[in-house]
Amino acid sequence: MDGPNNKKKKNSNRKYGSSRKSVLKKTLKQEQVTFTAPVSDDPVVAIIGGGISGLLCALQLQIRGIRSTVFDTGIHGLGGRLGTRTVDPSMVFDHAAQFFTVSNPVFADLVDQWSHKGFVCQSEGVIGELEAGGHFNPFPSSPPRYIAVNGMRSLADSLLLQSSLIEVVRPCWISSLEPYNGMWHLSENGKHRGQFDAIVIAHNGKCANRLLSSSGLPLIAKQMKRLELSSIWALLAAFEDPIPLPAEAAAVPFEGAFVKGVESVSWIGNNTQKLFNSQNTGPHCWTVFSTASFGKRNKVPQENIPTSTAEKVKELMLTGVENALGLSTGSLKRPLYSRVQLWGAALPTNTPGIPCIFDPLGRAGICGDWLLGSNIEAAALSGISLGNHTADYLKSGGSRPDEFSVGLHDEFQPLQGHDIGQFPGLESSKDISVARIQVGA
Length: 441
Known about the structure:
It is a single chain. By secondary structure, the protein is α+β, with helices and mostly antiparallel strands. The chain has two domains: 20-78 and 160-228 and 349-410, FAD/NAD(P)-binding domain, CATH 3.50.50; 84-153 and 230-343, Polyamine Oxidase, Chain A, domain 2, CATH 3.90.660.10. 26% of the residues lie in helices and 22% in strands. The chain contains eleven helices and 22 strands. It has helices at 20-28, 52-63, 105-117, 152-159, 206-212, 218-226, 247-250, 271-276, 292-297, 307-325, 376-395, and strands at 44-48, 67-71, 84-88, 91-94, 120-122, 127-131, 135-138, 146-148, 166-169, 176-180, 183-188, 191-196, 198-201, 232-239, 256-260, 267-270, 284-289, 337-343, 350-351, 357-359, 364-366, 413-414. The strands form six sheets. The protein has a seven-stranded mixed β-sheet with strand order 7-6-15-16-17-14-18. The protein has a six-stranded mixed β-sheet with strand order 9-2-1-13-21-20, covered by helices on one side. A three-stranded antiparallel β-sheet has the order 10-11-12, with helices on one face. Strand 1 (44-48), helix 2 (52-63) and strand 2 (67-71) form a beta-alpha-beta unit. The relative contact order is 0.19.
């Protein structure tokens, strides 16, 4: 969708010339884009990435009266790592983010709104730490854990139900960002996808680096390239009968467990118990996550996973489940449905510890969980922050860029914690911090 002013401005707003050939040549050398003309009276923002961070950025812009278009690659729906796979009504898997906790008051207010609208609820199931051999140590019930009521993706789908200033384009893979005549022109494999007053990058990894490599945003590109990401395998497995649980957990079957001492498994979660409790009489659906070291050692292009690799990973992870539960090798009944998925850019391992990045000269920003941590709360706070910051900039008319530069030179620090995410406040009764489990946001 084009921006509000469909006529291209006559004057060039890049400092080195107006011809398209000159723009392209200089952009490839990563000369800084500099827009100088006033912002449109009715600006529109392109948001590339429809995960929780990008969606909340769009919603915050809407609150401030600014239109946006969200471009997302999702075939089945929005949400990014708020991923849910529905095989049939009785087989539902959260195959990325499992749940989230709340520590920030701004996020707490937002979660209260979601709860009131019926988007999320507290999870009452038992989770804990599972040591190799079957020793299960349950966690205290505090802090509250939240899940989306119909699988994590339903939260993303619900957020835009009443949106009025947000357009969604999916599935769409933006392949080119071109600054020309005072606007950002977006393309998907040569197909024009509109012109915009500002852009937001709300995803990361190789695709984001490729997109930024010739965009004319060298400072943003440099910061994005400093981000380091782990790889995690996810195994979705549905069993006809309940999985045999350790004696310590048999009285109160656990909903999920952080696994310790098993190289191929770091988390196992019972989706059926979490989403349906005792109301489902169908298959028992589990999500299993590998460790980051296992993901790194078995990494392949996630868009084209060889059948042999998929089968090997599945068998190793099923064996890991047996080891974690203290079962003899080969005793676990074969799943009636199974699927493996590689999250090649699963989780950040370093962070600048800032809410967002914004380049006022290029009218471009970045949001995402990795800027603050590795969880849904971090993603939400980042999206809200960038939405507000971008709105402030656009409403200023763009005439005072020096006042709006954020995060372009901040140093990165290692992100402490376990392999698959952060859950602030979640600790075992042994006072062992496990504040990091969640593939995604």
